[in-house]
User: Fold these one by one.
Assistant:
Number 1:
Amino acid sequence: MDKTVFNKVLKTKDAEQIEEWLKNEKWYGTTGDMEHLFQYWIVNFGHKPNFRPNYIVPNMNSIIRCLKGGTGLAVVPDFLCRRDLENGDIQLIWEGKKKFENTLYFGCRKKTNYQTEIEHIKGLFRKVMA
């Protein structure tokens, strides 16, 4: 995707113009979880988006594969696409005027036979999320 047109729109700092440009692009979403898109839109424009994604795919990994193979936009958690961003397979066009964070919680039983495995999984989460 060529960001030059969007960068010109961003320079105007006109929220309505930015929103309109974004709405007119091709969007990807998932079947069950539109919460990232909704939160992004609320934080940056003050309301939920008044459109639905053009393409609905099963999960976030599918969105990333679609973005790699073509053009379009999606709101994807950074920890899921960090490697693809670093490799240049996909690009970040705008974090938004306000960056929003989504806290993930990892719950488990205190007493379990799988304490070693749980510690391993916690370590992976910390490593990937850092």
Number 2:
Amino acid sequence: MLNHWLTAAAWTSAFLLMPQSIQPLQPLSAVQGLLEEVGMRHPANSLNSSNSLNSSNSSNPSSTLHRANNSVVAQNIEGSEAALEDAIFQQINQYRQQNGLPLLSSNSTIAQQARQHSQNMAKSRALSHEGFNARVSAIGESISYRSAAENVAYNMGYDTPDRQAVEGWVKSTGHRQNIEGNYNLTGIGVAQNAQGEWYFTQIFIQR
């Protein structure tokens, strides 16, 4: 299921939030160990250096062309991310339907928080639930909720990164419990960094 980390790798992590408390679901120590090892082998994020390139002198034609190319690449990545978010939403609802569960409704407020977290993970190159309380609190400012949960995942080197993430979640008891949970709203965020790594966040809300 897990290919060599140099060519394709995937990790998942799940958290469950009940009002006023966070409870981790079956921490995967082996996965965490792999994540720490890979983190040490990937010490730097080159996104900052690309930002520096973007701030080069605009009077230089090659610099202007480089920025234009970066803009096209960024638009392509954003389009891919949106497509993957929609694909994951469809796959999760298909799974719930097959298991006799009501479909989830997509919510833009929740998706915004999920997307921002995936972007933060992609930038730091670290899979985590850091800031989960803050994300749910931000959602709670406009959506009253009774419970919330979050699944996150990372992979690279796969032709269908969305399917790889969902399959990883479904095969894990903790993630599957979140997917099958008594929730009615969801938001999904996907982000890719300059190294080609994909990061995924799905937040579940019960109103």
Number 3:
Amino acid sequence: MAVNLINMTEVEATTQKVDEYLYQIRERGGRITDAKRQLILTLLNADEHLTADQIYDEIAKQLPRLNISTVYRILEEFEIFGIATHTHFGHSPATYELYTVKHIHLICEKCDSIESIPHPIFRPLVKTLRNNYGFITDMSHFAIPGICKKCLEKMTKI
């Protein structure tokens, strides 16, 4: 019986999060549609960043008449509203996630692991680029490639 209560609590928490995102859309003058609701649910339930195609594949299970172009339009709207953000990992297609806090992605070139780190770590670089070069950058748009700690440890043991 306790498992059902835990699952119900998770469902309620997810429903509340979806409602919060839908409220943000309404507040910005956006329309609420089943596709938008499903897109939010898909991103909330994802355990990794998803491409537009992956998002479409998941939503199409619930909404078979959905068109991929609708997914792209919704993702664009969500980015304008500050609800979702996209990142490019190397040369692969853009991946999407719901916006939480500003962060930067590190991607391991050996194992493809992705780590999110707080944006403030890069404030000195962002400030230097602005002050010395008059250049304003969005550090969260692209992932920073390198070698993760685990892979580095494996390499040094060889």
Number 4:
Amino acid sequence: MVSAVYAGALAAALFATGCGSTDVFSRNTDGVFAPAGIAASQAVTYDQNLVPTGSSIHVRQRTEAGGATTVELRVAGVKAGHAYGVHIHQKACGANPKDAGMHYQNEPGMDAAHVNDKNEVWLDFKADADGNASVKAQHSWAFRKGEAGSVVIHSVQGTKGSRAACFTVPFDSAS
């Protein structure tokens, strides 16, 4: 009898705290790309050759109690075999590719010490033969509340490509 009560209490505690997870914050966001300015969508494509209408995106953010953050990205239906640059940007997407603002940075700055995959979230990938890809980035820091608003898919890897698509994601901190 005591073991049954204990097991029930343990199960209730695990359920109340997220099934035993130490996650403080977790969010999954999905979208389907639509042309910019034509349809209201969280996911907009600016270059339909690289990110065709109907391509899909999934983003998962998980921030642990100590602030460590993992961002996972999955795409389907993009241009097969193409290498894309992907970064978290400061603002939500809009009809104009520049609406998403600059890259989100843990420590703001414009020099090489700040513009890199340690201080920014880079999710560069190469699509497979079916136009699908999955990638993740992990950092020891959390997003500042209200300062990260989208995932921008760039035409090439690194920091020089044009903005091919944008997905508004309500990134958040653990606090």
